[in-house]
Design brief:
The protein has 273 residues and is α/β, with parallel strands linked by helices. The chain has one domain (4-269): Rossmann fold, CATH 3.40.50. It is 38% helix and 18% strand. The strands form three sheets. It has a six-stranded parallel beta sheet with strand order 3-2-1-9-10-11, with helices on both faces. The protein has a three-stranded antiparallel beta sheet with strand order 5-4-8. Strand 6 and strand 7 form a beta hairpin. Helix 8 (91-102) crosses helix 12 (261-269). It starts with a helix and ends with a helix. Bound molecules: zinc ion. The site of zinc ion has 7 residues, from loops.
Length: 273
C-alpha cells in the first residue's frame, strides 16, 4: 500500500532537489502499452510463428538473428515500431518533461527503453541518454562506418504478420548493405553507440546529483538499479517507483512508491508547485 505520507515525503525531496537524474526502464513504457517481453506467455501470444520455431525475444533481438533469421529479426522490430507508433507516451512522460524544464536547475534522463518516448514527449535532446539505443535510428549491419541515422517512417519494412516475416529492409546509404536498428541487442558487439549522448551524460554525472528517481526497473535488466545504487553510495537521495516490491532489492531506496509510473507521477505532480 502506498500511503499519502510516502508521496508527501517523495514530493518534498523533489521540491528541494536542484540536479536530478531520472532512471527509466521497461515499467515506464509498459504503462503506455509497450510490451516488456519478460512475460513469455504474453510474448508467445503476440507472435505464434516465433513459438513454432522456439525463437524467443532475446534470440530475435540479436546480431545473430539479423545475420541468420533476417526476415524474422526485422519483423520483430517492424512490429515494435508499429506498436510504439500506434500508442502514445502516458502522462508521466509529460510530467518529467515539465519538471525538467520548469522545476529543476538541471536534470537528465538515463533510459534503457528504446521506444523513443521521452524524445517524443519533447524532452531536451541534450538531456537524455538512451543507453540501449533507439528503434527510431538505424546503423549499418556491416558497420562500414560508425554512423547512425534517424529513420522514423512507419511502416518501414513490409510486414507479413501471419508469418512474422519482413521484406523490403532499409539499407545503409553508404555501402548499401542491410541496415539494422541502432539498438544495443543481446550479445551485441556491433552496436556503434551514441557518443554525443554519452558525453552529455558523463558531463551531467560528474557533478553532484541531489536526487535520482528510479522508475519501472526490472531484475532482468538491472542497468539502472546498479547506477542508482552507485549514486546512493555517493550521497544522492533516491526514490524508487515500481508496483513490484522486489524491484527495490538492489537499489534499496529509502522512498519506495509501489505504484505504476503513470499513477505515481500524477500523484506527485499534484504536490509540486
Ligand atoms: Zn554500410
Amino acid at each position: 500500500m502506498v500511503t499519502p505520507k510516502v508521496i508527501k515525503q517523495a514530493a518534498k525531496l523533489i521540491n528541494n532537489a536542484k540536479r536530478v537524474l531520472f532512471l527509466t526502464s521497461a515499467g515506464m513504457s509498459a504503462d503506455s502499452n509497450i510490451p516488456t517481453f519478460r512475460d513469455k506467455d504474453g510474448y508467445w501470444k503476440n507472435f505464434p510463428p516465433f513459438k513454432k520455431k522456439n525463437l524467443q525475444a532475446q534470440d530475435l533481438a540479436s546480431p545473430w538473428a539479423f545475420r541468420n533469421e533476417l526476415a524474422h529479426a526485422w519483423a520483430f522490430y517492424e512490429w515494435r515500431r508499429q506498436n510504439a507508433s500506434k500508442n502514445t507516451p502516458h502522462a508521466g512522460y509529460k510530467i518529467i518533461d515539465k519538471w525538467m524544464k520548469n522545476h529543476f536547475e538541471d536534470a537528465f534522463i538515463h533510459t534503457t527503453n528504446t521506444d523513443g518516448y521521452h524524445l517524443r514527449s519533447k524532452c531536451p535532446a541534450n538531456q537524455i541518454i538512451e543507453v540501449h539505443g533507439s528503434m527510431w535510428r538505424l546503423q549499418c549491419l556491416e558497420i562500414c562506418s560508425h554512423d547512425f541515422w534517424d529513420e522514423e517512417t512507419v511502416p518501414l519494412c513490409k510486414l507479413d504478420q501471419e508469418n512474422m516475416r519482413a521484406s523490403n529492409y532499409p539499407s545503409c546509404p553508404q555501402c548499401h548493405a542491410t541496415a539494422r536498428p541502432h539498438i544495443l541487442m543481446f550479445g551485441d558487439m556491433d552496436y556503434v553507440g551514441h557518443p554525443e549522448q554519452e558525453k552529455n551524460f558523463e558531463r551531467f554525472v560528474r557533478e553532484e546529483v541531489d536526487l535520482a528517481i528510479l522508475v519501472g526497473s526490472s531484475g532482468a535488466v538491472p542497468t539502472n538499479d546498479y547506477l542508482a545504487l552507485e549514486l546512493k553510495n555517493r550521497g544522492t537521495k533516491l526514490i524508487n517507483i515500481n508496483p513490484d516490491q522486489s524491484a527495490n532489492n538492489i537499489a534499496q531506496a529509502e522512498i519506495f512508491i509501489s505504484l505504476k509510473s503513470r499513477d505515481a507521477f500524477s500523484q506527485l505532480d499534484e504536490l509540486i508547485p
